[in-house]
Amino acid sequence: MKNLFLTTLITAATTSSAFADHGPGTSGSGAFTESAETLKPWQWSATVRFDWTEFKTPSAGELAGKEAFELIDRAFLTTLNLGVGITENFQFGLLFGYYAADGTREIEHHEHEAGGHEEPGGHEETAEAGHGAGEPEFSTYDPDGWTDLWLNAKYRLYRGPAGQFALYGGVKFPVGEDRIVNSAGESIEPAATPGTGAWDGMFGAAYTVSLRPNLALDASVQYTLRGERYDYRLGNRFDAGAALGWRVIGEAKSFPQVSLQAEANVRAVAKGKASGESDPNTGGTVLFLSPGVRVRFCEYAAWSVGVQLPVVQDLNGDQVETDFRVTSSVTIAF
Question: Among 39, 48, 227, 307, who pairs with 199 as Cys (CB 3.0-4.6 Å)?
């Protein structure tokens, strides 16, 4: 079974960012945590977001003896998130993107059987251990392409002295690139392509509260249900996060404003299934901490940048770990 390390990168990355870029008029405490705030009626919001992820390269010792291992140096995901307020408490949106990567390759180790040959007199001479090991063979592939399209909606149930509470959800349309062939002429698994070819669903809940005039808290939980395609199904995913936004420059109605952000997120992904069997080298749990900065230039424009650092990575089987992730976005409301 191949090590589908991209299970929680490509197809899941677009889910985690489906709502997390907030409009200039919202608290927007974090890049990966959803806010309960909604756009005003017939207000539009457009966010262009860029995610750069660096991965750790396993050592030669860690790769020794592996029948197959997929490697990647870095990945880039550019997404466009469009939203529109329908009523005071309801908004609708869509999200799609373009994925690109460097250093995507697969290393396969072929072991030659250590056989013996019979010496004169009936004595058998056995090859020494390790003499039969072959050199690793590399196959490369280009996974660049458009991602699947998410349609999403959010409904705010409560807005009052205790804060705001909202429910949200979405459906993923399999319109992205999902058929990629490597240099050996073999098809790449759906987990390593920009699109999975499967329909997915997602639902969640968000809470936002103003702790002080210049300090806001966002918290959200989210669950993603994965569909099956090409006899493969990615594992379902659970996300939870909390983010603080502290405005250090500017007042509530004056600009520019500068806010410092601090965020903690947990991502748990179940094992994927291929041909009905669980893949032991997929899924796992990761805890991220993310410092960041957000600048509101005016009522209708904002820019943010943050770094997501994995402090705990409990991955199943053999998978490439994340080193860090940098996220930057620009949002315009009109």
Answer: 227
H-run or E-run covering 12: helix 10-16
Which residue stretches of 54-188 are H helix?
60-63
Q: Residue 325: enclosing H or E segment and its boundaries?
A: strand 322-333
By residue range, what is the domain housing residue 265? 5-333
Cβ-proximal residues to 250 (8 Å cutoff; 6+ apart), any chain: 256, 257, 258, 296
Domain CATH code at residue 269: 2.40.160.40
SS3 assignment, position 247: strand
Surface-to-core class of residue 107, CB atoms within 10 Å of its CB (0-12 exposed, 13-18 middle, 19+ buried): middle
What does the block give as tokens for 305? 């940048």
Q: What does the alpha-carbon distance between residue 187 and residue 291 come to, in Å, rounded to a whole number?
A: 38
CA 291, distance to chain mean position in Å, is 17
Measured distance CA(238)–CA(223) in Å, rounded: 5
Cis peptide before 174 (omega within 30 of 0): no
Q: How far apart are the first and last CA of the chain?
A: 49
Domain count, the chain: 1
**Residue 167, SS3 per DSSP:** strand
**Tokens encoding 158:** 């409560």
pLDDT score of 126 more than 80: no
Model confidence band, residue 67 (pLDDT cutoffs 50, 70, 90):
low
Residue carrying structure tokens 């200039």: 24
Are 50 and 78 in contact by the 8 Å Cβ rule? The answer is yes
Measured between alpha carbons, how far is 58 from 177 in angstroms, rounded to an integer?
28
DSSP 202-225: EEEEEEEEEEETTEEEEEEEEEEE
Question: Model-level pTM?
Answer: 0.84
